[in-house]
Amino acid sequence: MRAIVISEPGGPDVLTWSEVPDPVAGPGEALVEVTATAVNRADVSQRQGSYPPPPGAPEYPGLECSGRIVELGPQTEEAGWKVGDEVCALLSGGGYAEQVAVPVGQLLPIPSGVGLVEAAALPEVACTVWSNVFMRGGLRSGESLLVHGGGSGIGTFAIQLAHARGARVLTTAGSREKLDRCRELGADVGIDYHREDFASRVREETGGAGVDVILDIMGGSYLDANLRSLAVGGRLTIIGLMGGRKAEIDLGRMLVKRLSVHATTLRSRPTAEKAEIVAQVAEHVWPLVEAGSLRPIVDRELPLSQAAEAHRIMESSAHVGKIVLTN
Ligand SMILES: NC(=O)c1ccc[n+]([C@@H]2O[C@H](COP(=O)([O-])OP(=O)(O)OC[C@H]3O[C@@H](n4cnc5c(N)ncnc54)[C@H](OP(=O)(O)O)[C@@H]3O)[C@@H](O)[C@H]2O)c1
After folding, report:
1. SMART domains, alphabetically (predicted)?
2. Which atom of ligand 1 is nearest the CA belonging to 125?
3. CB of 190 closer than 6 A to ligand 1?
4. In the chain, fewer beta carbons within 10 Å around the N or the C end?
């Protein structure tokens, strides 16, 4: 088969569309013929050499895909899938390819009303947002959520999901155009982080109380301002380190306000944990997608052979939502 190979760590041009050995469905795995995959920031870090695939994961980038099951490995009978089923999948890697082997616990059906290509934009954001904002962060209806980077793949999904589940959503983004899109998706408050101090604006918008949950992609550079933006009992869930991995933490503030800080990554979790997240997404998130309360936000589609161009677009942050790559 062909796949996008990272010839050496570097810029987008190190991504080459190459002939590689076919993957094999091992025990507990399905072989999926990939219709589409989608680009994640993590793929950019992997290409640059700073985010290697976890042990046992395919070496090619790609954390999600949609397609058709073409083979089922041993010990997959109980999962109920059959050859020919259309699926989308959360991957540990290998989505930038014509075929990928995936544990059956990481397969999801294509939600009704969603096309096979656009479904590739859903698994990574749905699993990341569900596991962090709801499983870890425990966001409840009537509470408030601050989403950093509302125009990102993650952000556009988090806004829709929190809004659909009855939360008040505040979001930051880098331009008025992105904030307008965020409001269309259900954000109640948009904050341009280039022009405004987000912590002051959060205080203003919440009558001084702060928000209940924050989904953060910045890490170190935002830690103090995030803690200042949380309400009593607030939960900070950090999923990205675009602003660095180190910062000083004011434990006094945490004690007084009874705050918690969580930091997680989805990719390196054990297969059983991923399967639990995927099962919860199928139960709690897919019905909202099928009801039309949530939709995949696809900025554009490109052929997989043009993955380098897709990475250039992602690094420019010109996109809103997901960049999808098709076979
Ligand atoms: N831990 C996990 O399991 C996990 C899983 C998936 C994704 N992630 C992380 O989630 C983040 C988003 O991923 P993605 O694939 O959705 O990437 P993406 O679409 O490329 O989004 C990145 C966004 O960050 C925004 N941004 C940059 N600086 C910002 C700032 N100071 N404040 C607010 N927003 C800022 C950019 O837009 P503007 O600056 O124009 O607003 C852009 O929209 C990445 O850090 C990724 O590594 C983590």
Report:
1. PKS_ER
2. 6
3. no
4. N
